[in-house]
Amino acid sequence: MTGGDEKVTGTLVFILFLINVLLAFALLLLYMRQNKLMGIEKRQQLVLKESEQVMASLLEEIKDENEKLLSRLMESRETEDKTTAAIAANIIMEEKKLVPATEEHQDVQEEARPLESKQDPLSDVSDDATDPQPLREQVKLLAEQGLTVTDIARKLNKGKTEIELLMKFR
């Protein structure tokens, strides 16, 4: 071989060596990027697991709160039913105790009242226990005159809830 061939061969070997070094560097970069992506993927999986755990615990808390709410609602309904039954029984007992006035007797009473008493809503219902009108009629009369539930309850010495129930059962 001649000196020129050796130069060309040396140059080619040098170029091949540089290409190998560049390829090794490229492989190293690819390996580093792959490791970086795998690390990111692992972190994302951890974040996903944590968020799933947080969501599961939140759903459990919501479920527990809903169960507590339902139990409270059931208790309040039972209490309302008992209260309603007691008030209804009280109303029935009061109606049985009071002697109902006949329609003719009521008409005569209304005609006999002076005009002033018809204008004063509080004077239409007497406070005496001997009043022949049933409680339901008294409540109806006062409600027609525009009194509020509170005013009616105060006037008849009854509970506000009882008056509200009487008005609902009309």
TrEMBL record:
The keyword Transmembrane helix applies. The chain crosses the membrane at residues 12-32. It comes from Siminovitchia terrae. Residues 100-121 have a biased composition (Basic and acidic residues). Residues 100-136 are annotated as: Disordered. Residues 48-79 form a coiled coil. Keywords: Coiled coil, Membrane, Transmembrane, Transmembrane helix. This is Swarming motility protein SwrB.
